[in-house]
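Collaborator request, handled under Task 6.
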Amino acid sequence: MIYIVCKDLMFTSRITPAVREAGGDVTVVLSLEMIERQPEPPSLVVIDLTTTGNLEPDALSFLQTQDPRPATLAFGPHVHEAILESAASAGVDAVLSRGQFDTLLQQGWDAVEARARA
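Structure tokens returned to the collaborator:
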């Protein structure tokens, strides 16, 4: 299951069809904590940093204990360097500006997954 942490309905309306078109299952949640309460474990977690704000160093600790550990990708405005840096410090696998994420999304969901798992 792919979980998207995002409250921007316009953006999620672009992401979810891309995931489904690539054959994936996707659930949109409003916080990282909501993923812990879901019945299916995550294979990939995509985080909109405008939804979460700064990520604390242990924000992803519950994901680190999963087997297999899900890939993580976070994106946010390029002008909010501190938020992007907080995601990298928290252990997010791939941290992108929103523009970089949007470019990958235009290439197809497989490009997004490849970047997250690189």
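The cover message to the collaborator said: "The longest strand covers residues 71-76. The mean pLDDT is 94. Please let us know whether this matches your experimental observations."
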